[in-house]
Amino acid sequence: MATHARPGSLPSPSPTGRRVPELDPALVGQWQAGGGDLIDLFAQAHERLGGVAAFRLGPRPTVLVTAPQAVQHVLALHPGRYVKRSHRARLLIGDGVLSATGEAWQRQRRLLQSQFTGRGMRRYEERITEAARITAARWAGFARTGKVVDVGDEMRRFALDTIWRSLTGHPLDPGTERELAAVPAVVAALPSLPADGAAVQGAVAAELARIDAVASHAIAAAHDGEAGPDGLGLLHVLLEAAGTRPEYTDRLIRDELVTLLVAGHETTATTLTWLYLLLDRNPEAREQALAAGAEGSPQRRQAVQALVHETLRFYPSAWILPRCAAEDDILAGYEVEAGTDVLVCPYLTHRDSGLWEDPGRFDPGRFTTPGRRPTHPGSYLPFGIGPRACLGLQFALRESTVLLEHLLPAHTPRFQSTPAKAAYSITVRPDGPTPALLGS
Question: Which structural domains are found in the chain, ordered by start?
């Protein structure tokens, strides 16, 4: 019989491996009868069985991975053994870099990677700052008039303006913003869509048509050499690639554009919304960040970044990372057969009391004080780790920090109501509106 390990721990490796401990089917049945979220089932498996656990919803067990060493094994050390299959948002993002696999993914990632690091990131600095200035001015107006605003909508508007400027060189206009409201609508609908492919397309056909129309217009404008007020955008890089790489058809360019729109604004908007909800419950964290240093100082920037990092610990952008075992393997001493579905769950790793001191407490100091957080790379992975880690990590952290540097000193949202729970889809998002008055 397998020895069960506490969460965050692993057994001593065995050259032959042992069977992954499996959650009692009776507990799975109770969960199914109760209609709980998947995260509730994952949490039971993690708590009862440890950092590598299994549960059975069909004929074969699914393996849940939360222990840092096992996380690193799957995502970073052996990505060829644990591969991505179809992405949950494929009907929206098509063959974009998030859903691509094999050589196609490698080519697409190489092209985009340079755009989101080092010199590439510097190209977007002013665009990020301008989007933050516009948001700050809008919030100042709301504060003067006493208008109730939805913080989640505001964060989505900022993040969409930022990524649209970066993609096209144009600021977000009201018409484009209105049409791209279809993106979060499709993302929110994904978990409840029917399994049949044709039915799925029909369920969100109108929303997909609106998104395609925006993408087609942007691609046509870029084809015509039209530069925006902010200069050329990332879309022009994709069109240049089409000149030498035949795989970059207008369809693939559309898929990359929509992929970057989804990944570039939905996750950031959700993180910033959670951050304000967490600050509402922990107001001292805002005061400590502002007291860390003068406006524009490295000390304040570090403190603001810590707010973002601690929010991402609670609500990682990639809360679940599905993989499939391409071959038989020994994972942290356990046998994993080829074809097994493997779910890496940063959400539970980040909340593991065996790794994090008092994990239920919002404590940004974990990320500013040496020795306060676990150092294993598999312990903190809000954007994943390994070769398929999120390309936009630096972009997301930069835009979040710049916006907060503009807004935190001036405004403290006073929420009129807050969501009672989270919704677990592509992201973990607040399940409801976030209306607030913007006090100073």
Answer: 18-439 (1.10.630.10)
